[in-house]
């Protein structure tokens, strides 16, 4: 097994995840099998209980693992299926060591960070790296490891020590370290500054790790004299210093690495030159080129409570982008804070209220994603009601589906006190109830999580057609509440169809309104399985309906692998143009609203 470690220095948010994923893409294009590991030094056992404002979205895997959003990047870039063990946290490592200590497995020794914690980290990496994640038998050829945080962080010290030991454990020719750093350009002098990277590499070397190559983030291509200076002071050959400069879309990043022969440098360090071929990235070239040429816009109103941080809905944004490009449309996301749609905002902040409703009414389609807590729930319900009454394409995910059901109960079935037990435990008309198997005392890992099967009860529905007329689909879940099965018949009598259910027939998975252009709600999260080459069928349905292509898409047929267009296009980690409303969050350069484009993991407006 060969290992590529990606670390970061100077500042966070440079795009280590995108770099690690892109390295994997290039090596995979060379004919190698790739797996990935993300190390997060925080004490949480997993990301499940963390607020999206703290750490971005919680990505859910097939096995129910609630993990860092970078694992979503790995899956989308590399078309692999990871497990919860591919995300290592300080909490997991300490928990495993303490469990062994309680069992007496350390034979009375004093349990310490070195060697017990560091050995546990190394053993975990070796064990997980050997597990195939691409559907084939046997271990992968290369494991790409991303160390979260920034070199110098106190919390990551045990991992850095462990990785230093690990490089000696696996031996020369089996370990390659890529350090991602910043080369800023000062506007006053217009000169690329190398000192931050020099200090970062010095700190890295002082901790026992020596970089084999540098991936330098900058606004423009590194000048040759700058490369020479970095080579001299960082002890890295100039041929092993690459520029990851700002590009029009993130699909260009693997192409940048290929064009600068990064794969040759990595293959040389890992002694894989004889078994690898020249990388074939024609599909990535086509994606990057096509996206740059898209002109016709499709506008989707994203109505949520975490609109101040786009990473909170990262997978939803990616799925929208996959679908829009497959429909040959340029995606524009109008961020609508759900609280700004509510009547209370009309009194307290009328400008924000008017802006929110203007964005909602100006959108081609509406999407209400998942979420927890009662803040903004009324606004989300209002968005569902608006889309239902005005024949605007609507996709509700998890909570977005549940609130669409509550809205239907209140305004179509005339149950004015209908509500979800999550927000009103004493409601007399509980449309959404707590799952019987759920825990009321523990929060972490106690939801209905991971891949579950949904069976289509109605074969002639829009959702079934989008999935290719299959009998069932497997999608990932993350929820504690579900539609009350005792009220399903009353809803169906009024025109709301429950077209998808679980294997028992008692858990509602997909809703539709048949005489609507496109009104679909799902209990699962289809965004987690949307990939560049296989856009989520339901997201394709939303985009197609929003731009008048749904009939053609349904006529041509979809099977979840080829959707909307003969040549499917993907994204990497590009965020579409976004517009915020209400209480505007200013960007780093002092601007707000308007179109913002993301490069790597940061937004550039």
How would you explain this protein's 3D organization?
The chain is of the alpha/beta class and 605 residues long. The chain is 35% helix and 21% strand. It is built from 20 helices and 26 strands. The strands form six sheets. It has a ten-stranded mixed beta sheet with strand order 19-18-21-22-23-15-14-12-13-24, with helices on both faces. Helix 1 (16-29) runs parallel beside helix 3, helix 4 packs across helix 5 (113-129) and helix 12 (314-326) packs across helix 19 (537-546). The two termini are 41 Å apart. Mean pLDDT is 88; it is low at 559-605.
SSE layout:
Blueprint: E1 2-8, H1 16-29, E2 34-40, H2 52-55, E3 59-60, E4 66-67, H3 70-78, E5 87-89, H4 90-103, H5 113-129, E6 142-147, H6 157-170, E7 175-182, E8 185-186, E9 191-192, H7 195-206, E10 213-218, H8 224-234, E11 241-245, H9 252-259, H10 262-269, H11 282-293, E12 297-304, H12 314-326, E13 330-337, H13 343-348, H14 350-362, E14 365-368, H15 377-389, E15 394-397, H16 399-411, E16 418-420, E17 429-434, E18 448-456, H17 462-466, E19 472-479, E20 481-483, H18 488-493, E21 497-501, E22 508-512, E23 519-522, H19 537-546, H20 550-556, E24 578-579, E25 597-599, E26 602-604
Parallel strand pairs: 1-6, 1-7, 2-5, 2-6, 7-10, 10-11, 12-13, 12-14, 13-24, 14-15, 15-23, 16-17
Antiparallel strand pairs: 3-4, 8-9, 17-20, 18-19, 18-21, 21-22, 22-23, 25-26
Helix pairs in contact: 1-3, 1-9, 4-5, 5-6, 12-19, 15-16
């Amino acid at each position: 097994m060969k290992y590529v470690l990606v670390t970061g220095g100077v500042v966070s948010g440079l795009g280590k995840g995108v770099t690690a994923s892109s390295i994997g893409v290039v090596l995979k294009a060379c004919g190698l099998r790739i797996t990935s590991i993300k190390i997060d030094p925080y004490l949480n056992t997993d990301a499940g209980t963390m607020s999206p404002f703290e750490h971005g979205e919680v990505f859910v895997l097939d096995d129910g693992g609630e993990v860092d959003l970078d694992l979503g990047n790995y899956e989308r870039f590399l078309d692999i299926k990871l497990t919860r063990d591919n995300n290592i946290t300080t909490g997991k490592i300490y928990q495993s060591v303490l469990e062994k200590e309680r069992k007496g497995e350390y034979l009375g020794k004093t349990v310490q960070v070195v060697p017990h914690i560091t050995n546990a980290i190394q053993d975990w990496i070796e064990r997980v790296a050997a597990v195939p994640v691409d559907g084939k038998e046997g271990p992968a050829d290369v494991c790409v490891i991303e160390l979260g945080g920034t070199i110098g962080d106190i919390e990551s010290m045990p991992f850095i020590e462990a990785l230093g030991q690990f490089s000696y454990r696996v031996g020369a020719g089996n370990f390659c370290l890529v350090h991602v750093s910043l080369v800023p350009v000062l506007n006053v002098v217009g000169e690329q500054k190398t000192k931050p990277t020099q200090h970062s590499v010095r700190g890295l070397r002082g901790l026992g790790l020596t970089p084999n190559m540098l991936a330098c983030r900058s606004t423009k291509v590194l000048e040759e004299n700058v490369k020479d200076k970095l080579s001299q002071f960082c002890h890295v050959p100039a041929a092993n210093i690459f520029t990851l400069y700002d590009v029009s879309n993130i699909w260009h990043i693997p192409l940048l690495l290929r064009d600068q022969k990064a794969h040759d440098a990595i293959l040389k360090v890992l002694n894989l030159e004889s078994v690898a071929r020249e990388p074939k990235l024609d599909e990535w070239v086509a994606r990057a080129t096509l996206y740059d040429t898209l002109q016709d816009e499709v506008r989707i109103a994203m109505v949520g409570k975490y609109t101040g941080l786009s990473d909170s809905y990262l997978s939803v944004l990616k799925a929208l982008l996959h679908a829009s490009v497959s429909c040959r449309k340029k995606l524009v996301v109008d961020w609508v804070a759900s609280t700004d749609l509510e009547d209370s905002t009309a009194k307290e902040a009328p400008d924000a209220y008017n802006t929110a409703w203007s964005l909602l009414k100006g959108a081609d389609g509406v999407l209400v994603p998942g979420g927890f807590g009662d803040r903004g729930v009324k606004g989300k319900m209002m968005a569902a009601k608006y889309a239902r009454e005005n024949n605007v394409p609507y996709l509700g995910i998890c909570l977005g589906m549940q609130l669409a059901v509550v809205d239907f109960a209140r305004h179509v079935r005339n149950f004015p006190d209908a509500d979800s037990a999550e927000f009103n435990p004493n409601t007399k008309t509980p449309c959404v109830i707590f799952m019987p198997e759920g825990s009321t005392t523990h929060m972490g890992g106690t939801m209905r999580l991971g891949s579950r099967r949904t069976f289509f009860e109605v074969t002639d529905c829009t959702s079934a057609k989008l999935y290719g007329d299959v009998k069932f689909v497997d999608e990932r879940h993350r929820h504690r509440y579900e539609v009350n099965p005792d009220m399903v018949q009353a809803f169906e009598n009024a025109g709301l169809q429950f077209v998808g259910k679980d294997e028992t027939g008692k858990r509602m998975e997909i809703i539709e309104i048949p005489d609507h252009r496109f009104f679909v709600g799902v209990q699962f999260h289809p965004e987690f399985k949307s990939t560049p080459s296989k856009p989520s069928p339901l997201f394709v349905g939303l985009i197609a309906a929003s731009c008048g292509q749904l009939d053609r898409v349904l006529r041509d047929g979809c099977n979840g692998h080829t959707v909307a267009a003969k040549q499917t296009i993907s994204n990497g980690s590009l965020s579409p143009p976004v517009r915020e409303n209400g209480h505007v969050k200013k960007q780093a350069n002092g601007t707000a609203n308007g179109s913002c484009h993301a490069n790597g993991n940061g937004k550039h407006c």
